[in-house]
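We include this case.
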Amino acid sequence: LYQCKELDCWITIWVIFDCSPDSCYKKKHILPGVIIPGARKPQNLDSFLFPGLHHLAAIQKEGLKIWDTSHNINCLSCLFLALGTANGPGLAYLNGFVGHHGKNGCHLYCGLRGQHKMGCSHYYPVLLKPHDYNVAGCSHPDINVNDIQDASAEMYWNNLIYVLQSCNETEYKQHQLETSISKPSIFLGFPPE
């Protein structure tokens, strides 16, 4: 069924890293988070991720009481989210960007603008301008790899506000194309500290 693409399945897992590196990827330290079967990709993945992330945020705020059987005492564990990762299409759901095919498709939000073929909407990250290439909106000159800017939290926040202030669907699509942000990341719901 999967080979013919009649069904699809999206899976998230929790990996417990509070153990030695040789054992943290053992079966007992990998917990299922979400399993979403279906004929199509989920329309709102955040609705499936939210319960687990909300629970983690609450535990981060209050701590998790654990009974240590070896010492017969209660401990307060301070959990944290070390990283959230995914494949290319899945990462766009987590970070709120348009994905690797967008005009600014860099997952590090470095500002590198992509280029696309005439009449196509799929952008590619290109440092060197092809010969006889003149496509409106993406005909930037050659870029030296050493001149690519570092990711900027300030630039991200300014662009996110710009997208969120869109007044209608047309303006939203234009702002999304300019910034490569499609929505706020679900991880923005975590406390900053």
